[in-house]
Design goal:
Blueprint (H helix, E strand, L loop, with lengths): L2 H6 L4 H52 L4 H40 L5 H7 L6 E3 L2 E3 L1 H11 L7 H5 L20 H10 L1
């Protein structure tokens, strides 16, 4: 979407500025999330490399000191700790991937408030399978039927509401009588 396309639709410069500002907010939030994902992926790679380096160092050290039982026991303990750390890291990575896919899917479903929708979802039924979230689409479709106010409607975003300034009743009350004329008549008698 660019200014020329909006101008071709007959929008004024002021309307175009408002549309572009709104669009910029959406694009900037997506860019921020992408930057966070890139930073997290870099961290993940660093952690994986650190764990691999430690495992290599422990293996080398273990081969050099096979005769010393005490040192061998310490190395085995450290290997166990490294394995535990590695499995914890993998769990965190899986959770981060799941959270990222869920956020992306909810944004794609045009959810107004992701925190509110997440509270209504049964997370135990949603599983990450490669790049897809199984069990999410069914729950979202049920929520759209029961709580459609949580989702942006397509008709609202495509049809702008134009309101003219002034009094829509034209200055008369609903009964058609002017209350000031009645009071004036009362004082004149």
């Amino acid at each position: 979407m660019n200014r020329e396309e909006l101008k071709a639709l007959g929008l004024t410069d002021e309307q175009i500025d408002k549309v572009m500002a709104s669009h910029g907010k959406v694009v900037n939030s997506i860019k921020e999330k992408a930057d966070k994902v890139d930073a997290l992926e870099s961290q993940i790679n660093d952690y994986k490399q650190q764990i691999a380096d430690r495992d290599t160092q422990l293996a080398d050290l273990g081969e050099k000191v096979k005769d010393n039982e005490e040192l061998t026991a310490e190395i085995e303990r450290l290997k166990g700790e490294n394995a535990t750390t590695k499995s914890e890291l993998e769990k965190k990575l899986e959770q981060q991937a799941f959270d990222h896919k869920l956020e992306t899917a909810l944004a794609g479903a045009k959810v107004k408030n992701t925190k509110a929708v997440k509270a209504l979802l049964d997370m135990d039924m949603i599983k990450l399978d490669g790049d897809t979230l199984k069990g999410l689409d069914d729950q979202l479709s049920k929520l759209k039927e029961s709580d459609d106010y949580l989702f942006e409607s397509e008709t609202d975003s495509q049809t702008p509401q134009i309101v003219t300034p002034g009094n829509p009743n034209g200055g008369s009350n609903s009964s058609g009588d002017d209350p000031f004329v009645a009071k004036l008549a009362k004082y004149q008698n």
